[in-house]
Batch of 4 targets.
Target 1
Amino acid sequence: MLIQLEPRNIPSKIWQVLSPMVAILATVILGFILFYSLGKPPIAALQTLLISPLTNFYGLSELTVKTAPILLIAVGLSVCFQGKVWNIGAEGQFTIGAICGGAVALAFPSINNYSLLLLSLIAGVLGGAIWASISAWLKVRFNTNEILTSLMLNYIAISLLNYLVDGILKDPQGFNFPESAPFNKFASLQPLIAGTRLHLGVILAVVAAVLIWGVLRQTFFGFSVRVIGSSAKAAIYAGIESDRIIWLTLLISGGLAGLAGVCEVLGPIGQLRPSISPGYGYTAIIAAFIGRLNPLGIILSSLLIALLYVGSELVQIKLGLPLALAGMFQGILFFFVLAADILIYNRVKIK
């Protein structure tokens, strides 16, 4: 007996929408089995993980704070992925954006108005875009695999952050801890609601998702991205410059990741530290695919991924399980999404 996968002529549009829901259900079932095998009450554990963060205002505010960086990065990645430009370097672009924005905030402490905040945000966007442009230039100039170059640049960016917070950006009054001085109020994203950590970055993330959705759906650039993603030969026949699309998609993706990074350090964190991300750049890849590379769908998928982060913190506190539980559930969810995609785009034939 031989099992083969045969491509479908017309993949089901309905199942492309429903498959993430099926993947979520399968993840919950597997989570039930997992908690039971660990000797934890599965119903209570799943309630703590998936429902408890939604039962009070503070939990909802923390959910949106976690959603903002994931959403910004995932929306940028959706632009790249629709054009078959595989940017895996969002973690590094996030980090460089944080470094550039934080450095500007520290370099001009005498500016006593919110123009300093604007300059820091712009610096973060430019930093992320410039870091992504390295992969774009290598791809266009030498046809280098952007997966490898963008991924390796992540580790360079993180090493650079560690070097700077233990060097020239180190707080001289920080008791020798490797971190920068706290940013002053004119370079900080102040809470929008007292008693919470909600900040302007949450609004910027939603606005960015809507704008990118409009650009991809209503402009010639968006059409060009989709054509290249569907067929490189058709794009050449239509006169679409693939090099230009590579540059633009990576710059947009890097800029949004940089914006996420600078919003994170100017908002919830408040300073530069060696660790500013729990892996948002990688998690956003999962959010992008669960959202079907649609910026509006990614809003919902980013909320789901953020829920796993916040819920895992509660599970750690209440049930004593490790915080890595969030990453495990994200991986399980992504596995089921990919498995569903295989069946959507292929049919199983037994010979």
Note: The chain has a mean pLDDT of 92.
Target 2
Amino acid sequence: MTNFPTGFLWGAATAGHQIEGNNVNSDWWERELTMPGMEPSGDAVDSYHRYREDIDLLADAGLDTYRFSLEWSRIEPVEGQFSRAELAHYRRVIDYCLSRGVTPFVTLQHFTTPRWFANDGGWTSPKAKDRFLSFVTQATTILDGVEWVATMNEPNMQAAIMTAMRRMAAQGGQWQSPTVEADAAGSDAPAEKDEKKQHGSFLQDADPEIGRAFVEIHHAAREIVRARTNAKVGWTIAAGALTAAPGGEEKLKQIRYGKEDVYWEGSRGDDFVGVQAYSSQEVDANGLVPHPPHPDNTLVGTAFRPDSLAMAVRHAWEVSEGVTVIVTENGIATADDTQRIRYTDEALRGLADAIDEGIDVRGYLHWTLLDNFEWGHWAPTFGLIAVDRETFVRTPKPSLGWLGEVAKRNGLA
């Protein structure tokens, strides 16, 4: 038996725009209407109305933590005008979690922003910090009893998306989700493949100055959450679990600093840092090496690398200088649920090894609870629960029950 620490959090994570449906005031909704190659989110999986059922499925399986996000564009559809009704909606989600004995883990901002914010410079605007802090201040009014709060989800991926959007605006071309490898959505046409390969390179071109700006905003939001709530506060970072191919050592340092390390450094002084890892990738002297073709590759084109979780946790622990870790996302895009269980089992065994080494890890939140809208695409399925997009009927997969049993035992058999 591989045991985990007493009080370890076991759960699953979601993001509002990917599951709620009809977030019509968000920048992503607007983008879906105009960006070539994007599928619309539409009703998504209607979790806005069905959150009780989703929390019930999680709790009944044996999981004890639900990570979900507040949708800023619902709460502040017009700058300075905050919806009491929407704040009350999210308070009901929190209360329902508590009524089921489920720990609510609240993300204040998960990729999406209001259209008015995005259309007036977004995160690059000199007003961005004050605008976000105004929203955070309102959000704290509903966080009584919430123990864990993330200010932002994957600011390093948000920076990458900003880079991608600028490039697409300048060059044209079709949308390619940053969570889907270029080759996974590719075509046999050489010109299209070349364009997508070039587009995918934005993931290695992260600007550390953008990262430092996000760190400043995060620190200011952190202080508001600490002053107005009793929650533990941090943020979540996308971890590439990057390694150096021969001759790629210096390039690795360069890419990893802008893509990750400036954000791990920004976690110093937080109550926790959320590690989000899915796969591992090599860096050679020219940059990121494409994932090699393999039958086990995921639906988003990445290599089957459950060992990436422990690699990412060790790196986060080192660079953050010992900030408590929570795995806020880890999972696999696959239509084969036995592969999902195999991946998760191996990832958790590696995580247990990292804990045995002395790394302070307090929880594991699987990505994701429900098959959902994967940022412009519907095909990748990460969920522990399948959803019929016509009827919204939820069908738990064996992986949900399997992870629930792990949670009940607080260990792997």
Note: Confidence is low (pLDDT under 50) at residues 183-200.
Target 3
Amino acid sequence: MRHGNAWHALMRRPWRFLFSRWPWLAFVYLLASAAIGVVLLPAMIATFLLLPLWGIAIGALERRRTRLLGFPRQTSGHVPLTREQRHIWLAVRVNEGATWRESAGLVIDLVLGWVALAVLFVQGVCLVVFVFVGLSGARGPNRITLFADVRIVVGPDNWWLVVPIALFALFVFAYLNAVLAAAQATLLRMLCGPRHRELARNVERLVQSRSTLVAAFEAERRRIERDLHDGVQQELVTLAARLGMVSLELDDLAARGTATGSARDALDAAQGQAERAMATLRNTVRGIHPAILTDHGLRPALAELADRTPVPLSLDVADFGRLPSSVETAAYYLVTEAISNAAKHTDATRLIVHARVEEETLTVTVTDDGQGGADEQAGTGLRGLRERADTLGGQFTIVSPQGGPTTLNARLPVLTESGEQRASSAR
């Protein structure tokens, strides 16, 4: 199990650091840096115009590679894009500050990669020299030229001095590698990681997009309601009127003795079917979005709902005035879903609805006296309520133990004008 990162490991006692995994992890990290530097340099020369794309790729790599040294997982500073926005991916990325920071990280990665290559090369040469000097001295007296005019004489009586010198060199190399690796990882994390300002902007963008989706959903629902009301319903009304005119003509024909009973029966059946279709359509339009909810708000809509619900409904709704339409719709359908579940799946004889607005949050609680056991995973209705609450940035909970009662609770944020001004000032 890992504890801390490379910087924490360097602060331990020397023997604990030297006999731990950290020197080896630092060596592997520098070896990977050297490989990246060797591979990227010719690629960068050949494709210099693709520097931002190389930067994005290296940024993604470094956010994962630094975890080798014990650093926590790091998120991206780029704005998330949906599948519908993929065609503008390059334009968005080129205009982001995170892309150009990652491009700077790419240049630093190249430089430090070659530095790591040089350091590891010198360390490898030193170890080869130590081994060569030790073996030469063990075989007999030898005069060895190290570099320039520096020469040493080793023999059977002094070759063992190479061993403590080599151990001290390994001690120095271990600390040097760990410092270089930790410093490179820290610098690249600063460049390739997100800024608090970018995180705040991404959150704000997400909130705005969710609000836009809610508004678009409500607008589309009202358009469907309007099309059904003004289109199909009017055609059915016209059809019923024409059938009525045909009925009058049949009455005239019957008075003259030329009408048949079968024609009258077929006409009555068609007229009854048209009336049933209009009734069904009216109920469908009312279920899509009640007109009273749009015109008068949540409290009158719930009062009207209580008059026609199959399960007696008791209301305890505060007079909080009008709320945003998306919030009123979510609260209304929470109550209708609770009524539908109580009527279909339980033996509840009463439902109680509480609704309050406190601290810019609408809290709606619906409780029935049924046998309980409601499962959110068993149907789409309760899952839809949770998704609707999540979309509005609220919370939805359900408590339904076996034996009852079942309680549905939704907390939906309601930003008044002062709340919006405070949120804007905070941003």
Note: Residues 416-427 have pLDDT under 50 and may be disordered.
Target 4
Amino acid sequence: MTGRRHGRRWFAGVMAGGLLTVGLLPQTAHAAAESHNLALGRPVTASGAHGEYVATHVTDGNQASYWEGPAGAFPQWGQVDLGGKADPDDVVLKLPASWEPRNETVSLQGSADGENFFSLAAGSVKSLSRDSGNTVTLDIEGEARYLRVQVGGNTGWNDAQLSEVEIHGEADEVDPGGPPAGTNLALHKPIEALSSTQNYVAGKANDGSTSTYWEANGPNSELTRALGADADVTGVVIKLNPTPPGAPAARASRCWDARQVNPASRH
């Protein structure tokens, strides 16, 4: 079985020795489309999580990382806070692209206050396979600030598993202003690397944990980050795993701890 452990101005810079490059990723197909992914980088909560497979992985823009619920405890749910009332057109659910086929029983609920939920899509069995990129789309209607994906069963493992929850549509209202001064703008935002080795992928360089890390496939590589909006960046903090194994490859366990004051906007 696969799919278990065995994903105001622009700032740019280059780390000495070719370790890091700060910049902006090109727009994805969804971002370039009429409706963008409202869930990208938004806060996520869940009914529970297994170890390092936390709920925030479903909005980090990295299909290789994933959320996994506690074993044997269906139903389980992950919930995205869109920051204000939104009118979503569809919800795209993803698993890591290389995983073996499986069926997950899913339903969608919406809420204006995070407490009282209504149905957006009734429970149904969805098939995910490599042929479809382990991706399934659910069309929905209804306005909501909070969108909850509930998983009632999974033929591939004995708990809920999702790597991305993309919510496409229009946001009628958003929370005003940007994050407060000192906020890490890079946390869980889209990130790419020129190379990586084994499962030490780029997404582990901005997952908020120094116990995980990105490792390049060689001594010289680059990481590219998208902040998602213009911002005043006041610094970049680079961290390594406190007890990393000795190897010559480039590593970063918490790069892009980008701090700001007076952000122009946030997405």
Note: Helices lie at 29-32.
